[in-house]
Structure formats: C-alpha cells, structure tokens
Amino acid sequence: MPRFKTRITELFGIDHPILCGGLMWLSDATYVAASVNAGGMGFITARTFPDPGAFRAELQKCRSLTGGKPFGVNLYLTPREAENTFLAGHVEILLDEGVRLVETSGMPPKELLPPLKAAGAKVMHKTSTVRHALSASKLAIDAVVVVGAECGGHPGLQLIGTFVQTPLAAERIKLPFVVGGGVGHGSQIAAALAMGADAVLVGTRMLAATEIGAHAAYKARMIEADEGSSRLIMQSFRNTYRVLDNADARSVAELEAAGITDYERYRPFVAGLHQKHAYDSGDWERGVLSMGQAIAFTRKPQSVAEIYAQLLQEADAARQRLAGLAR
Questions:
Q1: Rounded CA gap, 98 and 116, in Å?
Q2: Could you give the CA distance from residue 14 to residue 143 in angstroms, rounded to a whole number?
Q3: pLDDT digits (tens, 9 = 90+) for 89-133
Q4: Could you give all domains of the chain from N- to C-terminal order, each with its CATH number?
Q5: Is 95 left (phi over 0), alpha (psi -120 to 50) or beta?
Q6: Strand pairing partners for 297?
Q7: How confident is the model over 256-268, as pLDDT tens digits?
Q8: What's the half-sphere exposure (Cβ side, CA atoms, 13 Å) at 287?
Q9: DSSP SS3 for 140
Q10: How many Å apart are CA 320 and CA 309, to the nearest integer?
Q11: Beta-carbon count within 10 A of 325 CB
C-alpha cells in the first residue's frame, strides 16, 4: 500500500495523510478506531457525548479498539458561549485519559489552549478560508485545516473552492496544513499533496462506512445520492450549512426565502437532536444532515479500511499517471 510522508503524518504519527474529521453524532469510538487502525487519524466528537461519564467511557473504548494507538478528539466551539462551558471539563477528561491529539473547530480555541498545550497536546484548528487559517496560526496551535465550499456542514460565508484554497494555503501558511471539502477520490489526495497540502480531511466520503453507527436506510440514501444532492441553507443567519437536500432542509430554505428572521421558526428543523433521530431511525427527510459534494464517490457499502485502501490506490495511480506524462 503506498505511503506518503508529510508534516502531518509526522506530527500525528500516522502512515497515511488522511484524516477523518469529527462528524456530529457519528464520530464515536468504533468509527474513530477504524480510521486509526487503517493508518490515518480520527476524532471523537466531544459534543456527541456531553455527559462526562459517557465521554470518558467512549475514550476508554476507543483506546481499547486501537490497541493503545493514539486517536483524537474534536472540540467544536459555538458562537453561543454558554454552550461551550462543558468543554473545559471534557478537556480535563481527555487529558486524564491520555489523549494528546485534538481537532478544534468553530470559534478560535483561545480558552482551551493553555491546558492542552501545558499537557503537550497537538492541536489542529479547522477553518473555512485561508484568511481565517492565517489568523488561527497566530495562536499556539500545531496545524490548521482549510475546508472548501464543497464540504458538508459549515463551508463559511465566502464559499471558496478547495482547488483554489489549497495552493493559496501553500503560499501563505507556514504551519502544517490540511485541506478538505469535496475530497472523496484518491486522485484528489495526490493533487492536494502536489499543491502543497500535508494531508486531506474527509468526512462525507465516510458517511456510509460500515463502522458509522447510523441506520441502514440513511446509509442507503447516502449511496444513492450524487454531487447534486446537497443544498446550502442558513446563509441569512451568516451560518451557511451544506446539508442533504431533504424535506427539513427545503422547509428552512422556504423560511429564508420568505425573509423570516425569528430563529425559533427554524428550530423545529435545525435542532441537533433531530439529526440524531434521523441517524437512529433512518428517516433521512428529517433534520438538517451535513453532507458534502464528495457523496458522489460513495457508491457501495465499504468498511473504513476498504475506503482507505481505495483512496490510496487511486492516489498512487494518479501519481504514476503524472510521472508518465513527464518528458
């Protein structure tokens, strides 16, 4: 299996420059351990386990499943500060459990950095533009992620594509950097590395993976979906969200088109627990479900290890093709 040595593989001590970003309600011990055991890195989403005891148990389960190999935790900081208060306790727990790899996203993790860095943790912060990544790189972090407009979840307000952001990041960012957004084929990994990136971040490509703990009906919809099956919502709240084009997403779009600004009118559709219900029940028409354009590459049920193997084979084929074009 081909290997690519980069600053990110060295920083995280992994074989392959493929990171599985935190997926709310889905990035649990089973999925993250599968990513680690495939030679990459994954991040348990702390917000999926708000109860301290459940969070600690999930970390212990992941450590057991990886045979003690390092794994990561995702800490998402919302602009609503009151909803971030529990994260300080979760930082204490993850450090106590020996976790030293952290992916932060959302607001800059200024308050969380002192205890993390004092414990020797490696922190990677995720942003939606090169400009925001440059700002974040002034903090005491070790790496940054830049995600393009194609990504599921929050692609930012400017909606700049990954193919544009990657060479710009290589020119401007000194820290090791990862690119994501629309990445679901190995040739894109080869291209990203050629443009200067140190790794790629994948999320949507993994939504139908065997180890993802979601209902079979939801996974079947992911396999059926294509590059045109997502839509952008919540732009009127300056919180752009790329999601599966389903009934609830269309209801949100209708409210926005009508100029409704009362957030409570949106809550029945966008509340996080509705997402969890959709994953558990398989009713994929309910909830706003993060999904990017890379869903086009999800064509059959596969394990995480099989997806990694396919991505690496495709990346190596792209590398060989490029070498064959040289004169």
A1: 11
A2: 15
A3: 999 999 999 999 999 999 999 999 999 999 999 999 999 999 999
A4: 7-213+300-325 (3.20.20.70), 230-281 (no CATH)
A5: alpha
A6: none
A7: 999 999 999 999 9
A8: 21
A9: coil
A10: 16
A11: 7
